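1st attempt posting a full record on here, be nice pls
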Amino acid sequence: MGKLIPVFLVLLGLGAGVGAGLFLRPPPAELEEEQAEKTTAPVTADIAGLELYEFPSQFMVPLVVDGRIAHTVVLRVAL
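the predicted structure (as tokens):
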């Protein structure tokens, strides 16, 4: 019985890997083409009046949703 446990664990891991691969595979090309037709061009903003401020010990991280910047977060890293 003790020799069957490693075999069972290998089969369990293999099954979990196959299941995750099937679940996370990319959609077929037909669906991607349909979604590409439905999407609109991104909205561009006039950034001529914006100023840039460099933080001495912080940096900004953009949060991207659907290929567009949705929010920005200012982070500080200290060791």
